[in-house]
Amino acid sequence: MKTKLLDPSKIGLSELVKTCKEIFDAGELLAFPTETVYGLGGNGLSPVSAKKIYEAKGRPSDNPLILHIGKREDLSGIAASVSEKAEKLMDAFWPGPLTMIFEKTENVPPETTGGLSTVAVRMPKDKIAMAILKALPYPIAAPSANRSGRPSCTKAEHVIEDLRGRIAAIIDADPSEIGLESTIIDMTAEPPVLLRPGQISKNDIEKIIGAIDVDPAILRSSILSHRQVAVPKAPGMKYRHYAPKAEMAVVGGETEREMIEKIRSLSDGETGILTVSEHRDDYREGVVLFLGKKDDPSELAKNLFDRLRAFDAMGVKKIYAEDLSLYGVGEAVMNRLLKSAGGIMIS
Ligand code: TXA
Ligand code: MG
Question: Which residue CA neighbors atom 18 of ligand 1 most closely?
């Protein structure tokens, strides 16, 4: 399949929206930017489009998709009931990087939800995503636009690398602002349960609706112990994820110095080292990539997937990543970092 590259700065937003609508109406797929990561979209109420999404991604079809909407009123057609707590979270965080799980209506086909009776919904705040979603009479099902198992796409070039030739079009827009997937919370449980950490933290949510639970499968201890303490409630969290092709480990230490020494002792010329700009002169051997400055956790988050992909492109055999928790990054970054490393931590 020939994949069209759509450049919003060339064709303009209204022409772009028109083209996207034609593609979705025809049941075809299109990758679009969101503030979290790029999404691979298709008509969320069409079983045929859902099947195409699983095929293009190479994703197991028991892994449900998130429905994206542009207006609050779009929710009533897909969510069977919406609690007061959910309304409060929407007031606080929509549009934005929060996905909520509801009981689904009959409009949502089982192909979209991996056979579940629940549906995940999010309203993204990215300007382009919003313009497209607002113009559509149906929600858009969109997983992250990476091939299954690879790091999510935070730039159009990542999507081109993974999906060119497999889908109708890719919107060639700016890099994603946040760079990590949305926070997911299951609103069908009481108290609601956090299923995937993201930029909106547990604490942010608890300020709005009071205490919530956390799915044990996403706790750091669970990822590190390699023990599946529980089957994750977000089916996607059970798969090996965000993974670069090279073997990877996170390296910690009592102090930054100790951590650097440890990485130096493990590295040779073929090793990839993931660090911060302040440590520019600390590594003599290996391919060294920088996530950003220590005191800018959002920059570190935004660049994580891009750097993992860059290591792949350079063909390094092993990657040692500094323990970013030393720099105060949030739970979401540590979750992705440790999962990328398959739960391997050296300290
Ligand atoms: O930021 C994001 O959420 C991005 C952008 C494109 O919006 N999308 C995204 O989709 O990360 P995906 O498919 O890569 O991850 C969705 C996760 C999966 O782990 C899936 O298992 C879970 O959400 N999920 C979807 N529907 C669910 C449901 N009904 N119950 C539990 N988990 C669900
Ligand atoms: Mg994904």
Answer: 236
